Amino acid sequence: MNTGSQTQAPLFAGGRPGTLKLVVLLALAIMLMLADRQRGFLVAVRERALTLTTPVYLLAALPARTLDWLRLTIGDRNSLAAENRALREALLITQTELYQRRAQNAAQTRAMSLLGAARHQAVAGTLVRLIDLDLDPFRHRFLLDQGAAAGLARGDGLVDALGVVGQVSAVGEHSAYAILITDPNHALPVEVSRNGVKSIAYGTGDATRLALPNLPLSVDLVPGDRLLTTAVGGRFPPGIPVAEITAIERPTDAAFAVAYALPLSALGRNRELLAVKPTPVTGPPEPDGP
Known about the structure:
Layout: H1 3-7, H2 16-39, H3 43-115, E1 121-136, E2 139-144, E3 157-159, E4 164-171, E5 176-180, E6 187-192, E7 198-203, E8 210-215, E9 226-229, E10 241-249, E11 257-263, E12 272-280
């Protein structure tokens, strides 16, 4: 018995018809490949297929491309925002330094002309930032971001690069309240830079006007005269700009004249202020007597 020949499976199961079909298909495929290689018969078919399948590929790639676009957009926006913030900070620092230098030069010039270089005061200051501003008609006050921990005390003067802004009225550990010179309850001793006439400038509740009441009818004041701080009261170093005379009223039926002045400082529009304490400068020791 030859059992091995009986159990061996044929090479192509399923009989002759299936094998013949496979051979015919393989032959056609080879012929098509050769014809396409030599004549390019299937180029148009591939191009048409590419045209039909391109939207499918684009649609499939859309989520990934959208995520990439969002990632780049957010990254660029954050980068631009950080760069813009850094540039604003640098500009503010530079501008503040320039204002301070101008104020120092102007203060030195005024001190030399007013005091004749005979005596002067040094200014000890603390840079503070304005947090909140209240311009109620009956109260002109603002909140500062520094307090007693930074050396602020009640009565300290506040100035900006243009002139006097106000005074500290109440002090906490890390914050303080201040009153503007235009507050109806504020009064500041001043003198006219042109002739030294002294008076007191009162707040009126109007952010654009100070009042100088009870002046002699013959007072030597004209519009444009500049008012400066004096050493009277000890709150401000002398010679700091306060306001400029805008009008003088001399009623014929009154015993006194009234002048009005426009404040020169930004009055809260600047976010950084300088809290000042006038400190006498110790001069050289006097020579010993004989």
